[in-house]
Amino acid sequence: MEHLLIGLVVTIGIATIINVYLKKLDIPTVIGYIVTGFAIAQIFHFADTSKETLAHLAEFGIVFLMFTIGLEFSISQMRSMKKEVFVYGALQVILSGLLFTFLAFTFFDITVKNAIVIGMALSLSSTAIVLKILNENGDIHTGYGRVVLGILLFQDLAVIPMLLMISIFTSTNASVGELLLETVISAAIVFVILFVVGKYFIERFFDWVTSSESEEIFLASVILTVIAASVLAEQFGFSYSLGAFLAGMTIAETKYRYRIEADLVPFRDILLGIFFVTIGMQINLDIVSDFIFTILGLLLAMMLIKALVLFLVMRLFMQNRSAIKSALALMQVGEFALAIFALANSYKIISDQTNQIMIVTIVLSMILTPFILKNIKFLADLFFAEPVGLRERALVSTGYKDHIIICGYGPVGKMLVERFKKNNVLYVILEHDVKLVDEAIASGEENIFLANAAQKSVLEHFDIKKSLAIFSAVNNPHQVRLICENINSFGADINSVVTVKNKSQEESIADLNITHVLNRREAVTDILAKQICAFKKVE
């Protein structure tokens, strides 16, 4: 234990020094932590027990990351992401996994079982790195960010059958049917427990905790919730991170989601740092020197194949630019693949040498990822230049006065435009989705602007103080909150109408100065019709 504590002190010290210098060069802290881990592994020789303890501690970084991601996506929102998770995610994992399996079996002297394990593991990407960078640069709420999140969620779910597959390959007692039945029953129990607790208990529990008026007790109760959900999932054979994600989703339905997220972010980032340190510690210099060309060849082929498969699949569902961004974001192999290889190696499904080569290759792909994500717009421009012709006039305001501002051009936004046109009401539409803006302008809509209403400067630019009203018709709960905060900052005299999906979203903006909050479960159309009659007509 003493050696472990000394190692932790030295690790944190080195990580701090390295990251201070790297940050000045605008290099992500993830790289600093991985470099620290590599340096520590060369300087100190941790005992196996110390490495295992550090790995367990680091795993909670992913746990808290998945929990905070779960806070962003409530159960109702997950229902709206069915396509991203179960269509895009399934296609990516299955097609990539089968292709890698075929290539591994065809070009390397390994058995079919070995090829399947390697192929399916390589289909997984890095949840920890990708979501951390997307959260930092704000891309998690973009169109491609939503797709990436959905695919990563499916990959996390896919880890379960992959681990089960290894058990099937090595089991001499239980039949395949018994193992599958046991997994299905366990999954049902975990989902029922977490969602029942979330619906009938969790908010009352936090109400009771906050009655103590102690920040310390509140934070302790949050950590208890995360760890309890993670342990519950692990006890039934699933990953800690899946349990944490489900716990985050249940809390996302409560009024405490934003407070909890703010409290946990620093704690989460520290633990994630330790996780990336352990990744760096797995780089074996002997393996690198002996198999450098094999590793580089595998790295290049692996990342290009993953990117190509995902791009070809996604371009069937979205514009090429979003498809290439999604492909670039997920072209690495992730931390769960390391866990699968470690388990397969312990069961002698793959050799020690193969395991070490794959570990180094995967870690190198993870090291490249932050640089790819930080320059993803530039890289996307190399393949598909961002269209600007149609949007040139959508970037400049025409100086409206006594107008209605519509935030979002989804179904509700389009309904508003139709009604405003019929009533001859002057309006402007603010939409940050490039594709929607281009389509609207191409169809003859002249009053749509490429702008993000979640930025206060945008609302100032479109003269919110001179407007008759502002409507928020945005689907994303995070964006709704930001827009409402911006509206609130302009004072109480702004006539504002905000549509929400459910009671939870309504409560999340209850503390802000919004004139009308319309739950979409109500007769929104009728309410809007009455509101429109009160607006001034265009002269």
From TrEMBL:
Q: Name one Pfam family in it.
A: Na_H_Exchanger
Q: How does it sit in the membrane?
A: Multi-pass membrane protein
* GO molecular function term, any single one: antiporter activity
Provide the alphabetized UniProt keywords: Antiport, Ion transport, Membrane, Potassium, Potassium transport, Transmembrane, Transmembrane helix, Transport
**Coiled coil segments of this chain:** none
The RCK N-terminal domain, residue ranges: 404-519
Gene Ontology biological process terms, A to Z: potassium ion transport; proton transmembrane transport
Subcellular localization is given as: Membrane
Regions crossing the membrane: 6-22, 29-47, 53-73, 85-108, 114-135, 147-171, 183-202, 266-285, 291-314, 326-344, 356-373
Q: Which residues form the Cation/H+ exchanger transmembrane domain?
A: 15-374
User: Record's Gene3D superfamilies?
Assistant: 1.20.1530.20, NAD(P)-binding Rossmann-like Domain
Q: What is this protein called?
A: Glutathione-regulated potassium-efflux system protein KefB
Q: Which organism is it from?
A: uncultured Sulfurovum sp
